[in-house]
User: Which sequence fits this backbone?
């Protein structure tokens, strides 16, 4: 299918939509929610049930090639890690037909070429989401709910009467037979100065004071910071301890590679 979205009739869209599998729809909605995702992200999230990694990779590529042909998905010119990483490094986004099928008119966003920092952060959030789905498949935890970007955001009014919006990268509700755990997840890539991170921490403190999260979830979720280096972890932990306006116990600060162990056993944090 090579027509532009304006030349595809509703009947043609219906035919195409009727031919999509449940997995096709999940892929489109996943990419719509995150804006961008790599081949590897999509393979790990939606093709883990294959007999081998090679079979999963081949099946994923076949599906993505079909979505590319039908203009459901498109690819950025740039890749993660460069050409040497092959097809797993492609970065995907909704194309014009996919946008008409997977999003509402109100939610549809025109594709703009992202900056390197924006794309790096976005893909780090996608990677975190996929890591949580992968952990859930092991049976260590159950992923009751994962909200992405705007679905995770919460408008509120501060104690001073100022309108504000809490903007976690993810809201995550995990459970096991022993516990029910809620997290606001912040993915930091080391591009912001420490005072910016502390300002976000104060926004969480202000939101907790409203009681809205407690009414929604029964508890106030802990804030999980995923940082790129142990040095930055140590710096943020020290800054949290030194700020009298913040309760350091509300915040868990780790490197991204400690995500699985942390959410699997939060009582150790």
Assistant:
């Amino acid at each position: 299918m090579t027509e532009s979205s304006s030349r595809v009739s509703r009947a043609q869209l219906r035919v195409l939509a009727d031919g999509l599998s449940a997995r096709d729809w999940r892929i489109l909605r996943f990419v719509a929610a995150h804006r961008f995702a790599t081949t590897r992200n999509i393979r790990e999230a939606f093709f883990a049930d294959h007999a081998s990694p090679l079979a999963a990779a081949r099946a994923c590529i076949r599906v993505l090639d079909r979505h590319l042909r039908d203009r459901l998905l498109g690819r950025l010119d740039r890749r993660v890690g460069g050409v040497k990483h092959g097809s797993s490094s492609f970065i995907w986004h909704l194309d014009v037909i996919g946008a008409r099928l997977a999003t509402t008119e109100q939610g549809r966003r025109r594709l703009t070429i992202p900056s390197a920092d924006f794309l790096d952060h976005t893909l780090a959030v996608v990677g975190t989401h996929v890591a949580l789905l992968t952990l859930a498949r092991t049976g260590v935890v159950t992923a009751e709910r994962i909200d992405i970007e705007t679905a995770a955001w919460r408008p509120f009014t501060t104690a001073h009467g100022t309108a504000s919006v809490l903007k976690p990268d993810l809201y995550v509700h995990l459970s096991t037979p022993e516990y029910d755990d809620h997290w606001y997840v912040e993915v930091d890539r080391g591009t912001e100065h420490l005072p910016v991170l502390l300002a976000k921490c104060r926004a969480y403190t202000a939101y907790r004071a409203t009681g809205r999260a407690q009414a929604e979830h029964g508890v106030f979720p802990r804030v999980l910071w995923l940082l790129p280096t142990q040095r930055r972890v140590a710096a943020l932990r020290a800054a949290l301890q030194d700020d009298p306006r913040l309760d350091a116990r509300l915040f868990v600060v780790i490197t991204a590679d400690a995500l699985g162990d942390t959410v699997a056993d939060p009582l150790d944090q």
In short: Residues 121-268 form a domain with the Trna Endonuclease; Chain: A, domain 1 fold (CATH 3.40.1350). The chain has a mean pLDDT of 90. The two ends are 52 Å apart (CA to CA).
